[in-house]
Amino acid sequence: MSLAALVQLSHWLGDPARNLAIIGEGNTSLRADDETFWVKASGQHLGTIADTGFARARFLPLMELLNGKRAPESQNEAFQECKVDSDSPLKPSIEVTFHAMLLYEFGAQVIAHTHPTAVNQILCSSRAEQFALNRMFPDEVVLCGPQSVFVPYSDPGLPLAFEMRRRAQQYLDVWGEPPKVILLANHGLIVLGQSPTDAMNITAMCVKAAAIFAGACAVGEPVFMTRDDIGHIYRRPDEIYRRKQFM
Ligand SMILES: [Zn+2]
Known about the structure:
By secondary structure, the protein is α+β, with helices and mostly antiparallel strands. It has helices at about 5-15, 60-65, 75-80, 95-105, 115-125, 130-135, 140-145, 160-175, 195-220, 225-235, 235-245; strands at about 25-30, 35-40, 55-60, 110-115, 150, 180-185, 190-195. The protein is built from eleven helices and seven strands. Helix 1 runs parallel beside helix 9, helix 5 packs across helix 9 and helix 7 runs antiparallel to helix 9. The chain is globular and about 55 Å long. Bound molecules: zinc ion. Zinc ion binds near residues 95 and 187.
C-alpha cells in the first residue's frame, strides 16, 4: 500500500460534501513497514493534503510513552524523536499516539479518524454508548464488526490513548479479534482498516448506521439485532468471503 492511496483516502474523507471532517479536523495514517508509519501532520486539511503533508514516524518512541518507559512529561520530545526525518518542520498530530498504538498492537494497516456530523450527533447525546454496543442491520455487522468499542470522553493525547487501549484490549479478549470501529464520546469516529478502501467502506457504513439510528430514535425506539443473529451473520462463510471482496 502506497502513500498515494493514503492521500486518496484522505481526500475522500475530507470532501466537504461528505460532512466527515472540516478545516483541520480528523487524521489518517498508514503502516509503512514494521518500524514506521505515515501520519497526517498537524495543521493539514484532509480534503487538500498532499503527500508532503504526511510525516513518517517510528513506532518505538511512541510505544515507549504508552508502555511507561518514558514519562508522560517527555511527550513532546517523543513526538520530535519519532520523526524519521528529524529536520522536517512537520509536526505529527497530538493524536499520533493512538495511531501508533492501533497500527502497532491491533493489526490495522490504515487508520481513518474523522468527526462525522451524523455520528457525532449521537456521540454528543445520552445514546452514544447504546449506538456503539448494538447492531441494527446485517451489513453494519459485516463492515463494522459485531460491536464498536466505546470510549467515554478523555483528554486528547495520552489519557485518550491509554483509555482507548484498555477498551480495545477488552474487545479483543471478548471477540477474539481487534475492533473495526472505535467511537469516542463527544469527539468522533476511528476506523481500523486493512486497506484504504476498507477504511473508506467501514467509515461510510458507520455513517449510514448513525443516520439510521437517529431516524429510528425519532420514529420510536431502535430495535437491535440479537447477539445470536449478530454472531450468525459475522461467522457465515459467504459473509466472510463478501467482506474480503470489499477490501
Ligand atoms: Zn479527533
